[in-house]
Amino acid sequence: MQETWPYPFPDDTEWTYWHRKETFQLAEDTYDKWVMFAVEAGSFRYRIQRSEGTAEAGDVVVCPPRVRFEREVIEPLSFAFISFNLRTDDVSRLPQGRVRIADAARLHHDLARLKALPLHEAADWGPYGAHYGADIWLQCLEAAGKREETSPPSDAEMDTAVAWLRTHVGAKSALGEAAARGGLTPVQFTRRFQRAYGIAPQQFLLSLRIAEARKLLLTTDWTLDRIALSCGYENGFSLSRSFMRATGMRPSRYREHHRL
């Protein structure tokens, strides 16, 4: 008997390629279709239900329809936005959140082809775009299938730690306090956090602090030193140095460039 493909195939595929996007127009959004953010360069922070972290080159972030997708650019982002429908009601085996693609060359080839397709002739080039979009989806399925064999169970204590960190971004020793609250040493906490979320707690906290600094730069007239203290930094110089590494621009320029 011929074996049937166990996963639904994408249809009604649409795509857009964005080059060095510095910020998302919306900090969060929901879509009527499945979407993939396939990253070629740069990085961004995301949250989709229980899945959250940082996506960078070689990652694809998958979001199901009608699910809130929170996101923020960390480094100028070049990526393909791909949306499609799946004719299935069973999403339990389908990838969601960040998927690390094993074959970087294959992903890069698909992205290069999507980037080269002329958008103004999308009706003529649709079959080609759908092909490359479907291949990226296939790579996500392959990666998720391998991860499912080895992925650890969810960690409720780490979920609690994440919730605490979100509300204590300004604590100078936030990670140490989060570890102590769970009765863990810093090394134990780092290992468990990394295992649960696929990202180091230091990197996760950095993304929270940079996001908070961005918000305060655009919504207040506070000095840089005051913003720094609210974000867990000793002074404005420390924040400026960290902000520059994460975003490629100084806080003052970010405020001037993005503030209405």
TrEMBL record:
What would be an example GO MF term here? DNA-binding transcription factor activity
- Tell me the superkingdom of the source: Bacteria
Q: Does the keyword Cell cycle apply?
A: no
- State the Pfam families in the record: HTH_18 (PF12833)
InterPro entries cross-referenced by the UniProt entry: AraC_XylS_family_regulators (IPR050204), Homeodomain-like_sf (IPR009057), HTH-like (IPR037923), HTH_AraC (IPR018060)
- Domain HTH araC/xylS-type, residue spans: 159-257
Question: Keywords in UniProt for this one?
Answer: DNA-binding, Transcription, Transcription regulation
The name of this protein is Helix-turn-helix domain-containing protein
**Lineage start:** Bacteria, Bacillati, Bacillota, Bacilli, Bacillales
